[in-house]
Amino acid sequence: MTPDEFRRHGHDMVDWIADFLDDTGSGRRVFPEIQPGDVRARLPEHPPSELESFDDVVADLESIIVPGLTQWQHPGFFAWFPSNVSYPSILGELMSAGLGVNAMAWATSPSATELETLMLDWMQELLGLPARFRSTSEHGGGVIQGTASEATLVAMLAARWRVTGGDINADGDTTRLVGYCTSQAHSSIEKGFRIAGIGSERVRLVPHDERFAMQPGALAEMIATDRSAGLLPFFVCTTHGTTSSMAFDPTPAVAEICERERLWLHVDAAMSGIAALELSLRWVNDGLDRADSYTTNPHKWMGINFDCNLFWTADRASLIGALSILPPYLQSAAAEAGAAIDYRDWQIPLGRRFRALKLWFALRTEGVEPVQAMIRDHVAWTQQLADIFGADDRFEVLAPHPLNLLCVALRGDTVESANAATDALIDAANATGEVLFTRTLLDNRSALRISVGARATTHRDVLGAAALLQRLAPAR
Ligand code: PLP
After folding, report:
1. Atom 5, ligand 1: which residue's CA is nearest?
2. Measured between alpha carbons, how far is 72 from 163 in angstroms, rounded to an integer?
3. How confident is the model over 381-398, as pLDDT tens digits?
C-alpha cells in the first residue's frame, strides 16, 4: 500500500467507523443468527495466491465479518459487562499503531513511559484514589496493562515475592502458599493461582453473606486454620463489583485482617471502580487506603477502547522484585541508575503498546463529564428497572443492585422450575435479536443479568428491554 492509498483507505475507514458507531442499533441484531463455523465457511480456506484490492477486503468485512459479530456497541447490549469505545480513544489507538513504538522501557520510548505514568496519576486523581498509589508517592505507582486478569496475576506474584522475602524467585517453592477470595470472585483469580503455580485447591473460598459479599469473620477463621496446618497465607482478593451480581466485599474489615496477618490485599474493581468518576459514588473506593494493589478497567464502562486496564500498587518494590530481570540486551544507563520506570518490570510480557495515548486523547478532549452523566443515568435506570420488576409478581430481584447491574429471575414452584423458566426467558429475549442478556447462577438460582452499560443505550432502550421481558414472561 502506498502512502497515497493509505490516506484514501484510511479516510474511508474513519468514515465507515463514524457511520457504524453513529447507527449501531438499526438493522443489526445484537447477536447474529449464526452457527459455529458459519463465518469460516464463507472465507477461502487458503491464503490468496494473487493480491486482492483493499476495497475487496472491506467488502468482505461488511458482508461476512460484521454480520458475524456480537454487537457490543448496540443499544440493546445488556450482556456481560460493556466494552465501550469513544472517538478520541479510537484515534489514540490509531496513532499508537501509526507511531509503532514499543514502550517496554523508558529507554525504548521515553515519552510513552512518562505519559503513561502521568495518565495513571491523572486517573488516581479523577477516581479519588489514595495518594499512596501515585507514582510520586514513596512506595506506589501505576501501570496500564491489558486486562484485569493480568493485573490480578501480577498482584499475586508481588505478594508471593513479599511473603517469601524474595526467595520465590530462586527456589520457586509455592507449596505452602494459600490465598483467599469468595466464590463470587472472577474466574481470573483462580486462573492466576494456577498460573502462579499455587493451584486451585489453594484458593480458599471464603463464605459470602446474603448480599454475596465476603464474611470477614470466616476469612479470619480460615487463615487461622491454614496457619495451624503449617500453610503460608499470603494473598486476599476482595471484589468491588462482582461479575455475577455486582456485590461489594467489605474491604475495610478485610483490610484490618490483612494488616494483622501481613497478607497482601488486592482489590478487583474491574467493572465498578470507574463509578468513582462520579463523586456521589465514591463509596466504591471504601477501604482502598489500606489495599496493597487495585485494578479497574476504563475499557469497560468508561469508553476507553479495549485494552486499557489500570493497575496500582502501594508496594512497587515487591512488584519489581518479583518481575525484574535485567539481561545485558535490556540494560540502559537510565535503568541502571534507577532514574526511570521500566514498565516491562510491572507486567508479564516484555513488549508493550503505547496505550496511554488513548486515555490522554479522551481525557483532554472529552473529559469525564459525559462519562459521569452516563454513569448517573445508568445507575438511575437500573434502579427504575428494579422497581418495575419488583412490582411484577412473576419476577424476583435476586441481589442488591447498588450500581448498574440488576439480577432478576422468574418465580417458580421449585428452584428447578424457576431456573428453567428464567433460562427460557433469556433465550426467548435474545432470539429477538433486539437485546442480549447473559445468565449467571446466584446460590443455585438462575439469574438474568441486566447490565446497563453500553454507551449507546438510552432510557427508552432500557424501558423497551423491560417491556420485552414482561411481554415474554409467562403468566403465573
Ligand atoms: N474481574 C472482574 C470483577 C470482572 O468483572 C472481570 C470481567 O468482567 C474481570 C475481572 C476480567 O476482566 P479482564 O477481561 O479485563 O481480564
Report:
1. 243
2. 41
3. 999 999 999 999 999 999
The alpha carbon of 426 and the centre of ligand 1 are apart by a number of angstroms equal to 22
Question: Angle, nearest 10°, between helix axes 415-431 and 459-472?
Answer: 130
Residue 271 Cβ < 6 Å to ligand 1: yes
Query: 259 by DSSP, 3-state: which?
Result: helix
Q: Is 145 helix (H, G, I), strand (E, B) or coil?
A: strand
User: Which residue in this structure is represented by grid cell 495513571?
Assistant: 120
Confidence of residue 226 (pLDDT cuts 50, 70, 90): very high
Site to probe by mutation for ligand 1, drawn from 145, 184, 271 as the one with most ligand atoms within 8 Å of Cβ, is 271
Q: Which triple of cell numbers denotes residue 373?
A: 452523566
* Closest residue CA from atom 6 of ligand 1: 270
Instruction: Give the CA dihedral 250, 253, 256, 261, nearest 10 degrees.
Output: -70
Return mean pLDDT, the chain.
96
What is the CB neighbour count within 10 angstroms for residue 62? 12
Q: Does residue 182's CB lie within 6 angstroms of at least one atom of ligand 1?
A: no
Query: How remote is the CA of residue 267 from the centroid of ligand 1, in Å?
Result: 12
Task: Give the global pTM.
Answer: 0.96
E-only strand ranges, 222-292: 232-239, 264-268
Helices (H) and strands (E) in the chain, counts: 16, 11
Cis peptide before 56 (omega within 30 of 0): no
CB contact set of 266 (below 8 Å; sequence gap of 6+)? 152, 155, 156, 159, 235, 236, 237, 238, 291, 292, 293, 294, 295
Q: Atom of ligand 1 at shortest distance to CA of 299?
A: 15
> Helix 216-228 crosses helix 251-261 at what angle (to 10 degrees)?
20
For the chain, the first-to-last Cα distance in angstroms comes to: 63
CB-based contacts of 375, cutoff 8 Å, min separation 6: 274, 275, 277, 278, 281, 301, 404
Tens-digit pLDDT profile for residues 120-134: 999 999 999 999 999
Residue spans per domain, the chain: 94-365, 369-472
At the topology level of CATH, where does 369-472 sit? Aspartate Aminotransferase, domain 1 (3.90.1150)
Distance (angstroms) between ligand 1 centre and the Cα of 332 equals 35
The secondary structure of residue 305, as a DSSP letter, is: P
Options 3.40.50.150, 3.40.50.300, 3.40.640.10, 2.20.28.10; CATH of 94-365? 3.40.640.10
Q: Compute, in angstroms, the gap from residue 186 CA to the centroid of ligand 1.
A: 6
| Cα dihedral 340/345/350/356 (nearest 10) | -60
